[in-house]
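Contributing new records

If you add data, match the layout below exactly. Sequence lines come first and carry their own label; structure lines follow with theirs. Keep one chain per record. Anything else will be rejected by the validation script.
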Amino acid sequence: MTKLYKMHLKNIEYWKRVKRESSEIVYVKDKIDSFTLLLDKLGNPRTMPYSAGTYYMDLITGRLISIREVEEYLIIKPSGIIVAKEVLSKDKNVNLNAARIVDQNYEQYSEVAEDIEYNTYFCNKIALREGMSEIPLELVKQEIEIFRKAGEEMANQENRFYQPEFSAYDFMCLFTVINVIQKTNAFDRDSLIKFISYCKNNNKFNQLLNDININSNGVFAYSNDLEEAIQKLRLSGLLYTISPESDAKIFIFENIQIANLIGKRIDYFDDMIKFIKNYKQFDLNNEHERKLTRK
């Protein structure tokens, strides 16, 4: 299912940057006849701040916005611009259009999109507070910096007390338990990471995977979160490997205390069963491809 969308805007009012003859850059209220935002739908990952809407990423600039549905309208956040629902639609040609814009008029798109997505919010705030109809660029920059610092301070406060609802360790405990119940005594760590990466890239099983970060060294994917969780279960005598040379193949002891590992994780039990079913099929397909490659 495609996650790529276009938002075709017509006759919307926003704050537009204008360069005066004196070379001063200011913002003034204006209407844009037609402009199309190219977006990638991210959904609502738990690793991102709460939003009453749905997160999208601008494919050209990488900026994040939130789009909230209210009856027959959409509200673009943070700008606060309100548009009709029908302006947002799926488009399989978004990537092609994005490549053309990057090649031909990136600067123009980036400037207009920034004013629509972000700067209109700050200009509205300044205009309401100061009663201004023409806002200098420097004043907008100052407002953005105040907002950025306040956001960093709030994030620092939240991080101090953040406790994931379902951590990488929780994931591995439940993953291990269900494998034991299903009489599966081993799994391939690298294949598991590949499948987790695939799921995260396609917004699958978010409730299980939100707190597992996947990184890449340019050659293969890896996860420090998952590695740490696996190591904890090794030290607890639940998992083991045969040799350092084949540490990707991880075995599960059969006589583990299942009840102790399920505990509060029972709420995620059904989702993990579905995850493991999909993972085993994914692993089977990968093994088939590897065999074909070796022939």
